[in-house]
Design a protein that fits this description.
Pfam families: ABC_tran. Keywords: ATP-binding, Nucleotide-binding, Transport. This is ABC transporter ATP-binding protein. Helix 3 packs parallel to helix 5, helix 4 packs antiparallel against helix 5 and helix 5 runs parallel beside helix 6. This protein has eight helices and ten strands. The protein has one domain: Rossmann fold (3-Layer(aba) Sandwich). The strands form two sheets. The chain has a six-stranded mixed β-sheet, with helices on both faces. A four-stranded antiparallel β-sheet has the order 2-1-4-5, covered by helices on one side. The N terminus is likely disordered. Adenosine-5'-triphosphate binds next to strand 2 and helix 1.
Length: about 260
């Protein structure tokens, strides 16, 4: 798989989002769970970043805090130069609507709307007009042109997730957060969606952050962040499924107790 950055890729080092010394706790006292423990990390622009780690390591929490869907206990979160923890709810909602795209495991399409209506829904809600040329590019890249009038129930799971991908891309967000986007798909449909996400990074310069359990999915990314116990414990550039699987096995080993 090629991981060549697009010719128009921003210079290395520019960040689309970052968190600084973020801690997120649930509950308090004896019942406190520290889901994120002093995490500092940046998400480079125009790159595909995967977040992996054992169950309960804090992957979803990190993504939700980064995307402004969940409030942090302490620390700072930035989308571009904007610090999210300083925004009131209204401004935060507007920022998410205008600058961030989301893809969820459960597709989250509106059943009564056609594929095309689902794709343009966030723009319609924001009162923005779709850039037709861009929309055409997105629709052709996800290969949905013959299916635009279909309702979600008339589409396969893979097609539905491609609609959700097109919906996330339609507004050209600065960053897309994808939470287990292939979790509900068979491996073939999953591969189609991942190939599309990969090409949207390579050819359209999109920035994507994806939480996944699947080493084969992580292999589509440029870099993997590994979380354990609420901390980033490792990173891997240009991952392969084999290398990621090897690294993940390390997390499952029982802790060796010295005799
Ligand atoms: N709303 C909540 N209330 C209490 N604890 C929570 C809540 N959400 C998450 N946690 C805890 O925070 C920790 C991190 O959870 P998180 O869902 O971020 O992990 P994850 O790596 O995404 O897990 P998985 O791979 O199983 O989805 C876990 O110990 C979890 O039980």
């Amino acid at each position: 798989m090629s991981h060549t950055a697009p010719a128009s890729a921003p210079p290395r080092g520019e960040l689309a989002a970052r968190v600084e010394r973020v801690t997120k706790s649930y509950g308090s006292g004896d019942a406190e769970v520290r889901a994120l423990d002093d995490v500092t990390v940046g998400i480079p622009k125009g790159r595909f970043t995967a977040i992996m780690g054992p169950s309960g390591s804090g992957k979803s929490t990190l993504m939700h805090c980064m995307a402004g869907l969940d409030a942090v206990t302490s620390g700072e979160v930035f989308i571009g130069d904007i610090e999210l923890t300083r925004l009131d709810d209204k401004r935060l909602t507007r920022l998410r609507r205008d600058r961030v795209g989301f893809i969820f495991q459960a597709f989250n399409l509106v059943p009564t709307l056609s594929a095309l209506e689902n794709i343009t829904l966030p723009l319609d809600i924001a009162g923005r007009k779709a850039d037709q040329a861009w929309l055409d590019t997105v629709i052709d890249t996800v290969g949905l042109r013959p299916r635009l009038k279909h309702r979600p129930s008339e589409l396969s799971g893979g097609q539905q997730q491609r609609v959700a991908c097109a919906r996330a891309l339609a507004s050209r967000p600065e960053i897309i957060f994808a939470d287990e986007p292939t979790g509900n798909l068979d491996s073939r449909s999953g591969a189609e969606v991942l190939a599309f996400l990969r090409s949207s990074v390579r050819e359209m310069g999109q920035t994507i952050v994806m939480v996944t359990h699947d080493p084969a999915a992580a292999a589509y990314s440029d870099e993997v962040l590994f979380l354990q116990d609420g901390r980033i414990v490792d990173t891997m550039a240009d991952p392969t499924a084999e290398k990621v699987l090897e690294r993940m096995k390390g997390f499952d080993l029982p802790k060796v107790v010295a005799p």
